[in-house]
Design a protein that fits this description.
304 residues, mainly alpha, f41 fragment of flagellin, N-terminal domain, two-stranded antiparallel ribbon, 8 helices, 66% helix, rod-shaped
């Protein structure tokens, strides 16, 4: 059986092909203008799922990068505070040795005592160092400072200054990876001493003995103990800082790899799309030419 072909059938077929070419060209133009292979999930469901997972991984790595940057800032702040504190404590030890010299007169001992009290205040300021409003030596405590001082009273009875540690029991940590967490704070009582044996109280006793004419050499061992404790904490800070820096390098590489993977899934090959678009434009122009010829003859055509 022979199917009957009419002008209307040819027109419908030609217009359908013309619309198909136009749709393909529109899709290519959309890819070229957006620079993306996937403009909607239906373009590539599998690629869309892969892109979403890669972007989720990228957000996790970016958060780890922020954590590492914040942790590095905490540890840098602590390193500076402990280094400065060690310098002050070394100076206090030198002054104590100088004050223990029997040749020093009372006026010289008084001057040494005043300088030691100045170093005590400087150490207290370093012990209360903060980063973004949080004390770096108070753990998870919400207190604005790690140590507080109740001034001495003249009496009677006279009382020495009282120092209290306000730090919390928890530690401040930053997650650098799903299985890697680093501590970014330092226990103030470990670095500067617990109440009753703080470096501030040691220096207060030295200053009092200097004014009273007592033997201050007995306090050298206490200063050495506090210096050893600070050095130990400083070494720990250095180790953790190196860990954070190494993690930052790994995070940076992971971020670059993820960006490359996302680009492979989502981004177009501009050269290939341009060539395909030009080819499709030629095809569309040819389809337009064919469509223009599909015209049903009129009565005037027959009369001519």
């Amino acid at each position: 059986m022979i199917n009957r072909v009419t002008h209307q059938t040819v027109q419908r077929s030609t217009l359908a092909n013309l619309q198909l070419n136009l749709d393909r060209m529109s899709g290519l133009q959309g890819k070229l203008s957006s620079g993306k292979v996937i403009t909607k999930p239906s373009d590539d469901p599998a690629g869309t799922a892969q892109a979403l997972q890669l972007r989720a991984d990228k957000r996790g790595v970016e958060q780890a990068a922020r954590n590492a940057s914040d942790g590095a800032a905490w540890l840098t702040t602590i390193d500076s505070a402990l280094t400065t504190s060690l310098g002050s404590l070394r100076r206090a030890r030198d002054l104590t040795v100088q004050g223990a010299n029997g040749a020093a007169g009372q006026q010289a001992r008084q001057a040494i005592a005043m300088e030691i009290e100045g170093l005590r205040d400087a150490l207290l300021s370093q012990a209360n160092t903060t980063y973004l409003g949080r004390s770096v030596f108070a753990g998870t405590s919400g207190a604005g400072s790690a140590f507080t001082m109740t001034p001495a009273t003249a009496g009677p009875p006279a009382t020495p200054p009282v120092y209290a540690f306000t730090g919390g029991e928890g530690t401040v940590e930053r997650r650098l990876a799903p299985d890697a967490v680093v501590r970014v704070d330092v226990d103030g009582s470990a670095a500067f001493g617990a109440p009753g044996s703080t470096v501030f109280e040691v220096l207060d006793r030295i200053a009092a003995d200097l004014r009273a004419g007592g033997d201050v050499a007995q306090h050298l061992s206490a200063i050495d103990t506090r210096m050893e404790a600070m050095l130990g904490e400083l070494a720990g800070v250095g180790t953790r800082h190196r860990q954070v820096m190494d993690a930052q390098q790994g995070i940076e590489k992971s971020l670059m790899d993820l960006k490359g993977s996302i680009a492979e899934v989502e981004d177009i090959d501009f050269a290939a799309v341009i060539v395909e678009l030009q080819s499709q434009e030629v095809s569309y122009q040819a389809a337009l030419g064919a469509t223009s010829r599909v015209l049903q003859p009129s009565l005037m055509d027959f009369l001519r």
